[in-house]
Every structure is written in structure tokens, then in C-alpha cells.
């Protein structure tokens, strides 16, 4: 971690705070997490688990959609915005390397995302535990949810930088980011679902499908959270696919993706001619 | 003294078109070089090549002995992009402090901002700045850390006349401290008095590179004389002097620099018929037109 990357991170964090992004992201997380926790609190009694477990299961589903969305909204104009303003060529004429610039932006955006996730899920989790009880298992599940949500956010921050680098303008980058979100979060799953239905429980469904699923970071996030906690799995009713894989598959995918994403972003940024 | 910036037979292609063709250019420490040319003549491309932001295809560029884009070169170079803007949410002080941190130079940020006339706007957001103020902020970062080479791309765009005077005062200061300054511009008339040497690019080719005086004699552009006759005697004057009638009372004639004194003596000998003479030597505008627009081969 270099002083130059930290200087950029400090400046970016100031921008996030000043243009209300940090506040908005946190507010969105808190509101959605609270709404889902209390709307989804009905099945507590029938399943015999505490309310925090139910809350974590609902929030896992929420985070699959929201973490990538917030991350992309922060990162899509990280490069193209500077280029549109004409300040990218100036920034690149300074001794800071492209890797340092990207790392600085990444650190600040990740910090903002981590803050929003921790406050949002933390608040909802605390309220659920207070009103409906919590155990060691469910507290662990909440911690896991927050940590994996930050990892998932990191993946899409990096993908956003890549998109921002290859786009000709911020508008184009916004469009491409929306496409990335749609593909990873919605269309990929739909495609897999279609394939499973066509396959009718054959070789594909048994052997290939689970691996294809965890190859997508959004699904790896879901599988990791569900497989790791039996009670959460019971609550979400998603045990089948997760149990077909070794336990390390989903964590490995979600830990590798930020690295792959950042390497791709660095590659794309390296080709940018401001 | 070694040159701070040395460009040797640089070629660059964009697709199949050649945007820089065999460019040789050098700037000595403390020298102010004006780089003139139309839009698309290759000025900005050349600057980006010097910064290492875009690759060149043949030739070499050396910034104080270092290759473009290398850490040493970036440390020694200051750059002012054309019509630059900064993030509107930051204040002038914050933006300049960031640049100071990135350059690794210890800098007195408030003093620098005062130097460019932004003392009052120090803690205001850049979003509230006018175009001229943003340009001044850009200039302030050029002054960071005593650069060896300063590249200014259209530094006067968006500045009012008084700010332009300030800008050139700052450029002079840079030159005095030994910075090689390259100013890309098409504000010809200002550059005239404020630079040591002038290079002109046309369609990626360097068509001129010399001092203003040398360029003038090289181009051999005529000096224009306008002679005003006493009332009613214009016919007589025109017969004696020749040249072309320009209005009811004057004739205009052109002569080369070495004939100028002979012409003046001839006209002075005419006596009372002549009431006034005005003389216009060739200006940068004319020179620029001569070098950049004509199809010289």
C-alpha cells in the first residue's frame, strides 16, 4: 500500500462523503434490510429458529441484488468521469502509477461499501435479535453475511472499473454497468435454470450445473451463506445445489473473483489513452 | 547546456494516417518555446507523446535524459491540459494538496493558490469556480515541485486579458528558475512577445522552428507602408509613389525589409504632399499564415 494510493483513497472518500453517496448507500442498506427483516419474520415459529436466522436468510437474498448494484453505481464513472472532465491525462502525468490510482479508488469505494453494509445489516440484525432472539450460530451467520457482501461488492467494484475504462463516456459506462448487473444477477441464473429444466435431471444437472453456478460470484455468495449455516439453509429452502459441491468451492470462487476482477480492470485501464 | 527536452525524428500513426512526421524539437532549460498550429496539426498529440500517454512509432523523446512515461520523467514534468476541469465536490485546496501528495513534493498550497489569484476561493468547491478559475487552479499545479519541463496546452483558453498577463508572468517565472517551457497555442499575438522561439506544426510536419526575427527574414514578408496625402493632392502622390489607392487620401505600398529605408527616403523627399506615413512590419499572424497555410513544399 503506497502513500500515493492512500492519497487518492483519501480524496475519493472525501468526494463520496461530500456528494452524499456514503449517506445514500447506507440509508438504502438500512431501509431495505429493516423492511425485509420485519416483512419476512412470519415463519419464525413454524421453523423453530430464532428471528435473526430468518432475517439473515432474507438479507442474503437482498444482498445478491443490492451489493452488486451499489458497487457498480460507485465505480462506473471512476475512470470515464475523470476522462470526461479532462483531468485523467493530468492525473496520469503525475508519478502515481495506474495500479496505484486504481488501488486508491478501490480502497475508498470498498471502505464506503463496507460501512454501508455493516451499518445496514448490523442495524437490522440487532433489531431482529432484540425482538426475536439470536444464538451463536445466527450471530456467526450475520457476520458471514456482512463479510461476504463486502467481497461481492469488491467483485463488482472491480468490474465497474473495467467497464469504466473501456467505455467512451460515462453515459456508455452506465449502460454497460447495467448490462453487467443484469447478466450476473438475473440472466445467468435464468439461463442455468432453463438448462436444468431441459436436462431433466441428467448428467448436466448432477455434475456441471453446481460448478457453473458457483463460477458466478453472485451465486457463490448465495451458496456460501446458505451452505455454511444449516438453519439458514432450512429457512431459505436452498440446500440441494449447495450440498452437491465441496465446501471450499463457493468461498474459493468469491475470494478469487475480486482478484480476477481487479486484474481485468488493471488490464483495461492500462490500455486507456486519455 | 544540455537540453531539457529533446525530440528526435518522432513519427506517429493513428490507423493509417500519419499524425506526426519526423518531428525534431528541443527546448533548453529556461527557454520558452511556442508550438503553433491549427486544430489537428498534432500539437496535443505531440504533448501526449512527451508525457508517455500515447506510444510513438519511431524516433525518440528524452525528458532530462529519461524516457517518456518513466517515473523519472513524470517527476520532472509538469502538464496543463487544455480546458481542464476537476471534481466539483473538492475544494481548490484539497485538489492541490492531492496533487502535491502525488508528486511527492512538499508544497505551500495556500501560497501557490495565492500566486495564481485564488486566495479567496481556497476553501470553496471547484464546482462553484468559473472557467478561468479552474484554469488558474490547473496552472497552480504546474508550479508544484520545480519541474524541469512544463507542457502547457492552450493555457490561455478561457482566460480574460488581465489573467493572460498574469499567466505569462508565471511562465516567465518558470523559465527564470530553469524550467523548459513548451506552450501549445493558437493565440498568436500574445505568444509573439512572450516566447524565445517559435515552432509551427502543419498536418503533423514541423514547417518552422526559429526565433521570430529569423522567421521574419526567412519568410521575407513585405513591410506595408501607408502614405497619406495632403487634401486634394492624392492623384499627384499616387503618380509619384506608385502603389495602390486605399481610400480618398492614402496609397499603400509593400516593400521588402532591405528596401524599406530607401523607400522612406524617397517618400520623405516628396515634401509637403505627404502628411503622414504609417508602417506595418510583418506580424506573427502573417508569418503563421505564410508557414502554416500556404502549400509550401
Major β-sheet profile of chain B: 6 strands, mixed
Q: What is the helix tally of chain B?
A: 11
Low-confidence stretches of chain B: none
Q: According to CATH, what is the topology of the largest domain in chain B?
A: Rossmann fold
Count of distinct strands of chain B:
13
Sheet-strand content of chain B, in percent, reads 25-35%
Could you give the distance between the termini of chain B? 33 Å
Tally of helical segments of chain A:
14
**Most extensive interface: pair and counts?**
A-B, 24 and 29 residues
Domain count of chain A: the total is 1
Mean pLDDT across every amino acid position of chain A = 88
Write the H/E string of chain B, N to C: EEEHEHEHHHEHEHEEHEHEEHEH
Organism (chain B): Parasedimentitalea huanghaiensis
Pfam family, one (chain B): ABC_tran
InterPro entries (chain B): AAA+_ATPase, ABC_transporter-like_ATP-bd, ABC_transporter-like_CS, ABC_Transporter_VariousFunc, P-loop_NTPase
Protein name (chain B): ATP-binding cassette domain-containing protein
